[in-house]
TrEMBL record:
Family to which the UniProt record says this protein belongs: Belongs to the acetyltransferase family. RimI subfamily.
Native source organism of the sequence: Kitasatospora aureofaciens (Streptomyces aureofaciens)
Protein name: Ribosomal-protein-alanine N-acetyltransferase
Pfam family, one: Acetyltransf_1
Protein keywords: Acyltransferase, Cytoplasm, Transferase
Length: 162
């Protein structure tokens, strides 16, 4: 992801997460540290016409990784893009030597939880009222020892069948 991707990413962000969307400033701040040697890694998924249809972000500090965000346009869900984006984050966390990778997911987002479970994430706790202003709890999940041995995004089957 680059600075010129922020506007199309914001369009998706506001549509997918209307109650708790990130701001432009949050994306700018994240990308400011997405450089060689920085603590952030962001990527986008594009359709054949170049339209951004998904994005994901990772923070790594002192051997710990955290999935900051992951989203796929609802019109492209079920086609393996979430898996490809998550696999990219897992590989990057492993490349950066992370001992574990954490994430928060809405307790009412079963589809995302299944995606994370398929990649080895396990529930480790609840953050009460994490998603504001709706006051929705977050399920905290962890993947121990992220690896580059996981599925290559190019080899992923359509997740509707998985």
């Amino acid at each position: 992801m680059r600075w010129w991707d922020i506007e199309p990413v914001m369009d998706l962000e506001l549509r997918l997460f209307p109650e708790d969307a990130w701001s432009h400033g949050m994306f700018w701040s994240e990308l400011a540290d997405a450089h060689p040697g920085g603590t952030r890694h962001y990527s986008v998924a594009t359709a054949a016409d170049g339209t951004i249809v998904g994005y994901a972000g990772l923070m790594t500090v002192a051997g710990e990784g955290d999935v900051q965000t992951i989203a796929v346009d609802e019109r492209h869900q079920g086609a393996g893009l979430g898996t490809a984006l998550l696999t990219d984050l897992i590989h990057e966390a492993a490349r950066r030597g992370c001992a574990d990778l954490l994430l928060e997911v809405r307790v009412d987002n079963q589809r995302a939880q299944r995606l994370y479970e398929r990649h080895g994430f396990e529930p480790v706790g609840i953050r009460r009222g994490y998603y504001q202003p709706a006051n929705i709890d977050a399920l905290v999940m962890r993947l121990d020892h992220p690896s580059t041995d996981s599925t290559d995004p190019k080899d992923i089957e359509d997740t509707r069948h998985g």
